[in-house]
UniProtKB/TrEMBL annotation, chain A:
Source organism: Chitinophaga tropicalis
Protein name per its UniProtKB record: Fasciclin domain-containing protein
InterPro entries in UniProt: Adhesion/Biosynth-related (IPR050904), FAS1_dom_sf (IPR036378), FAS1_domain (IPR000782)
Assigned GO CC terms: extracellular space
Pfam families: Fasciclin (PF02469)
Cited SMART domains: FAS1 (SM00554)
Superkingdom as given in the UniProt entry: Bacteria
Native organism taxonomy: Bacteria, Pseudomonadati, Bacteroidota, Chitinophagia, Chitinophagales
Domain FAS1: 36-174, 178-340
TrEMBL record, chain B:
Lineage: Bacteria, Pseudomonadati, Bacteroidota, Chitinophagia, Chitinophagales
Compartment annotation: Cell outer membrane
SUPFAM superfamilies: TPR-like
Domain spans labelled SusD-like N-terminal: 19-223
Keyword annotations: Cell outer membrane, Membrane, Signal
Protein name from the UniProt record: RagB/SusD family nutrient uptake outer membrane protein
GO cellular component labels: cell outer membrane
Family stated for the protein in its record: Belongs to the SusD family.
Annotated ranges, domain RagB/SusD: 339-492
CDD domains per UniProt: SusD (cd08977)
InterPro entries associated with the record: SusD-like_N, SusD_RagB_dom, TPR-like_helical_dom_sf
Length: 551, 493
């Protein structure tokens, strides 16, 4: 019996030994994340943010900032808030009106997570909850660069990721703009003449409406390019009277056809466009009907209306970086360093050699010498095809400068359309001639195209495989055909596809859409835009590109 | 009953007592059994070279040396971290701020340096001279890695001891730029003394460190610290050896084939020798249809220039040399042939070497140093040698005043862009020129940045580069967590 007992004990002991070591309690994780949220982060760093927390609890924003969401919060430190109190002459946070505090906090909050890599020189891609944009940038003082927000605060600490968003710590409170565009301009003595013109033309009211109250959604946000008194004086307008004397031809600046009225409208762009936005686009529509301002970045300077027109460079006007980008509650004000106005231009013909563009000129081994097949990945920037086919720069068949573009178009395996960006066209009515080398890829080939400009189809289609009917010049013109080569060749046809009203002086998009048939040999050489009251048949062009006037 | 006890006890023991006391791994060799003979020593040194072929290492060297400069453009396939570097939005979380691939090689070198001497005890056929030669390779490679780190990060921790296990992990502080540079020069001084002049065959001479490799690194490092006379002396040692020369450029196809396609040319001093077995990552970066990087449009327009009238007049280093003008593909690494037929390397042919130093580099390093010791005319003569070989176009020729060091060295900087396009040198060249004489020439860098920045970010990017602390990368987040003594570089704090 004794041995049995000791045996039992031994077995129990051995079993215990086996079990030992394996019965520690495994920690159970009940949270999905141990990351803190925005409020949690601020509370963890109370030394820095106690005032901010106080404001947030007064405004009630701490509620939604401590639960799930995706926010960007610019968090001012205690120092920032006390500096703000001091600057606005208030003894403590309690003395600030609740609504004002709420607005202030909303201006620091965005409903998206934005980290510093998405910051540019201009506005953030989202509105703040207050309803005004914040702009970002970077400034260097004493050799050290900091990212700035709204030109009011520097980022001290950036991209702090918390569970419900991103926190950027800032050293000053962000204050929204309180003045509208109209008020910003009128309150600045520098713009007294421009402001007077704004008043006189009645456009003051147009730029004096807050976005929320504006019934016209296209004009909720506007951009004004103002001219300062010194700029106007340099252009010879020392007073409003001088400006009025020059432009106001109807005597009533409120008249919609009056040139002064149009002059002021030409200085107002649709949309809120900071300089960073202005340089990102080449043209901007203005409140002057159908007039655009063109823009470009040249080195470090932002230029407007700096264009090459008909081979002549027209120097533009610089926008001053230091005094531009002034936020208003309904837009932004820029300052032009020169006087500019709508240019009156008469339509001029454009004889456009489509096979002459910078990308091919940069390949001297090919340009004018041998064929170059473009691929979808390296198409020139002003010619677009949707694929699957691209196009070939073709040499050897002669005509204008000895080259043309062979653009496969039509059904399966070829692109259904091709779009080309035209040279600058002056506002006016033009007849449009498509000049091509007639060719059929095979006996049954056919390729009928509709031409459209900016999406507006022209009256007549054209077919790359059709030969011109040959008769007399006049008879052919009446049927919409012409010889465009010199000496005249029947293989190279000019086909009139219709008359188009070009509404803005700008570059436009011309598209060939294949309606019927499919082939590779769509040989496009030139496109002529000729004002409708001008000679349509001359000049013709020699193979080296020289124009030959009417004999 | 007693039997049951025995059975149980036996069972408990039976399964587990085979090799309880023998803890050596079954499938490898441990350190105590290694370092026995000189073959093992050689294998360890070759292992250091093999680590240079690591994909992420050359990728880092390319990204560090090119992305912040003006020769490369990103395609739509580029990763967000790559685009962020180009737009000066570099955070400590950026993948490319990881220096791990370089420290891995450093650790291999450290291992050789620490244990190589043991071999002398067991292998009596190993001479002191041979041992020192092997050591010099490790020292030089370590110096080269630290030189890349110095130029990319500024201050880095100097790890000089082998980390052979968790027990030997060290927490290290950053060393100052001067300390890092002093260490580099110290390593190179040893290497210079003991490295061999030749291994007896061309391929090994170009792929392993020789005396001339050491001189080249020295020349580059002296120039970095603006010690011009030392730089010139180091260059002269290479030039006067008469072992190297520029490859003839009269037939572009041949020149491209020998210098870049096959590599190991007479012009080469040190290359990372990728081959068919160990290919480089460049096919996916430059050569594939969905490549991530192409040459910037300014490479043809401004750097090499285009003779619009006569296509036969071209800089051999431009179209067909470093770039394919038609689609801006980075031809130096993606091209298989040049001249009249330009074929792309296929996915299985991506073994272009990484060119660390070429003879042309030595000539231009010397020229730059000459310019700053008032020997401008000699410098311009050297530039002319480089230009003549490459048939550079007249329109890229400048005539700087030989007495103005900054004019001459700016011209050399332009020439270096042409000669070493995409070889991972451009950013370091610009930085070296900008920081010269206590950042007297920061405008060189700002001009470059202004032309290259996207319009809507130009002003911010310029402001960032005006802060000279931004010219060095941040320390990667992971490193900061692993080494508590590391402090983030101030610009990124």
């Amino acid at each position: 019996m004794k041995t049995k007992d000791s045996l039992k004990r031994l077995i129990v002991f051995l079993l215990l030994l086996c079990g030992w070591g394996s019965c520690k309690k495994a920690p159970i994780i009940s949270d999905t994340s141990d990351q803190v949220n925005i409020i949690g982060y601020l509370e963890k760093n109370k030394a820095q943010f106690s005032d901010l927390l106080k404001i947030l609890s007064t405004t009630g924003d701490n509620g939604f900032l401590s639960v799930y969401g995706a926010y960007t919060f610019f968090a001012p430190t205690n120092d920032a808030i006390s500096a703000y109190l001091k600057a606005t002459g208030r003894p403590s946070i309690d003395k600030i009106d609740l609504q004002e505090l709420k607005d202030l906090m909303k201006f620091h909050l965005l409903e998206d997570t934005l980290t510093t890599p998405s910051f540019s020189d201009g506005k953030l891609p989202r509105l703040t909850m207050y309803g005004q944009y914040l702009i970002t940038g970077a400034s260097n003082t004493g050799g050290q660069t900091r990212i700035t927000v709204n030109r009011q605060a520097n980022l001290i600490q950036s991209n702090i990721r918390v569970s419900n968003g991103v926190i950027h710590v800032i050293d000053h409170v962000l204050v929204p703009a309180t003045q509208t565009l109209a008020q910003t301009i009128t309150s600045d003595p520098k713009y007294s003449v421009f402001a007077e013109a704004l008043q006189a033309t009645g456009l003051y009211d147009t730029v004096n409406i807050l976005p929320g109250n504006n019934p016209d959604s296209t004009k909720q946000w506007l951009t004004v390019i103002a001219e300062s008194d010194s700029v106007l004086a340099a252009a010879g307008f020392s007073s409003y009277a001088a400006l009025k004397a020059r432009y106001c031809h109807t005597g009533d600046p409120k008249n919609v056809t009056d040139s002064l009225y149009l002059y002021v409208r030409y200085h107002i762009l649709y949309g809120i466009k900071y300089l960073a936005d202005i340089v990102s686009n080449t043209s901007h529509t203005t409140l002057a009907p159908l007039e655009v301002v063109t823009s470009k970045l040249s080195g470090l300077t932002v230029l407007i209306n700096d264009d090459v027109f008909n081979g002549v460079h027209e120097p533009g006007v610089e926008l001053d970086r230091n005094t531009s980008d002034r936020s208003a509650s309904n837009g932004v004000v820029h300052s032009a360093l020169g006087h500019f106005a709508i240019k009156v231009r008469n339509p001029v013909p454009v004889y456009w050699d489509v096979a002459d563009f910078p990308e091919i000129r940069n390949l001297p081994a090919y340009y004018g010498k041998q064929n170059y097949p473009f691929a979808l990945t390296n198409m020139p920037k002003d010619i677009t095809v949707p694929g699957p086919s691209a196009m070939t720069y073709t040499v050897g068949g002669t005509y204008v400068k000895g080259d043309f573009l062979a653009i496969p178009l039509g059904g399966p395996g070829r692109s259904p359309w091709v779009e080309l960006k035209t040279p600058l066209l002056v506002r006016g009515r033009y007849k449009v001639w498509i000049c091509y080398r007639t060719q059929k890829q095979s006996g049954s080939s056919n390729n009928v195209n509709q031409i459209s400009i900016d999406g507006e189809p022209l009256q007549r289609s054209m077919n790359f495989t059709v030969n011109m009917p040959i008769s007399t010049e006049g008879e052919m013109e009446s049927q919409g055909w012409k010889w465009y080569t010199s000496p005249a060749s029947n293989n190279w046809a000019g086909r009139l596809v219709g008359t188009i009203e070009i509404r803005t002086t700008d570059r436009h998009l011309l598209r060939f859409t294949t309606l019927q048939g499919t082939q590779n040999n769509n040989n496009l050489d030139m496109i002529h835009f000729i004002p409708q009251d001008m000679d349509q048949l001359y000049p013709r062009f020699m193979a080296d590109g020289t124009p030959v006037p009417r004999p | 009953m007693k039997r049951t006890i025995w059975v149980i006890m036996f069972l408990c023991l039976g399964t587990s007592c085979n090799k309880w006391l023998d803890v050596k791994p079954q499938d490898g060799i441990i350190r105590d059994n290694y370092w026995q003979n000189k073959e093992q020593l050689q294998a360890a040194v070759i292992g250091c070279y093999a680590s240079l072929l690591d994909n992420s290492l050359v990728q880092n060297l390319f990204v560090w040396g090119e992305l912040r400069a003006d020769m490369v453009a990103a395609t739509l396939n580029a990763a967000i971290d790559e685009v962020n570097i180009m737009e000066a939005n570099i955070l400590a979380t950026n993948y490319y701020t990881s220096w791990a691939p370089l420290y891995r090689t450093i650790n291999y070198c450290n291992t050789v340096i620490t244990y190589a001497a043991q071999v002398m005890e067991t292998d009596k056929t190993l001479t002191q001279q041979q041992l020192d030669a092997y050591l010099s390779e490790a020292y030089a490679m370590r110096a080269l890695m630290y030189f890349y780190l110095l130029r990319s990060f500024g201050e880095v921790p100097l790890q000089l001891k082998a980390t052979s296990g968790d027990g030997t992990l060290e927490q290290l502080k950053k060393s100052s730029q001067q300390e890092v540079h002093a260490q580099i020069m110290k390593d190179l001084a040893f290497a210079e003394q003991h490295a061999v002049e030749t291994y007896g065959n061309v391929i090994t001479d170009k792929g392993r460190i020789t005396k001339y490799t050491v001189y080249a690194i020295e020349a580059d490092a002296y120039l970095w610290m603006e010690q011009y006379d030392n730089c010139i002396a180091a260059c002269d040692k290479i030039i006067n050896s008469n072992r190297f020369g520029l490859m003839d450029g009269s037939a572009q196809a041949q020149w491209f084939n020998s210098v870049f396609f096959t590599g190991n040319s007479n012009e080469s001093i040190f290359e990372f020798q990728f081959d068919q077995q160990k290919q480089n990552p460049f096919y996916f970066m430059f050569g594939a249809a969905n490549n991530r990087f192409i040459g910037s449009p300014r490479v043809m327009d401004e750097v090499y220039g285009i003779d619009l009238i006569d296509a036969t007049k071209k800089d051999i280093r431009g179209d067909g040399g470093s770039i394919r003008a038609a689609d801006q593909m980075i031809w130096k690494f993606a091209g298989a042939s040049s001249g009249t037929t330009m074929q792309v390397r296929g996915a299985t042919e991506s073994y272009a070497h990484w060119f660390v130093y070429r003879y042309a580099d030595v000539l231009l390093l010397k020229a730059e140093a000459l310019a700053w010791v008032n020997k401008g005319q000699e410098a311009l003569d050297l530039v002319k040698v480089i230009r003549d070989r490459a048939r550079a176009l007249v329109l890229t020729e400048r005539t700087p005043d030989p007495l103005s060091p900054v004019d001459v060295s700016s011209y050399i900087l332009e020439e270096r862009a042409r000669e070493f396009a995409f070889e991972g040198k451009r950013w370091y060249d610009v930085l070296r020129n900008a920081k010269r004489n206590n950042y007297s020439y920061l405008s060189i860098m700002l001009d470059m940045v202004a032309m290259n920045a996207p319009g809507n970010m130009q002003q911010s990017i310029l402001s960032k580069y005006r802060d000279v602390r931004s010219h060095y990368f941040p320390i990667n987040q992971y490193e900061l967590q692993a080494d508590k003594l590391l402090e983030q570089n101030p610009y990124y704090q």
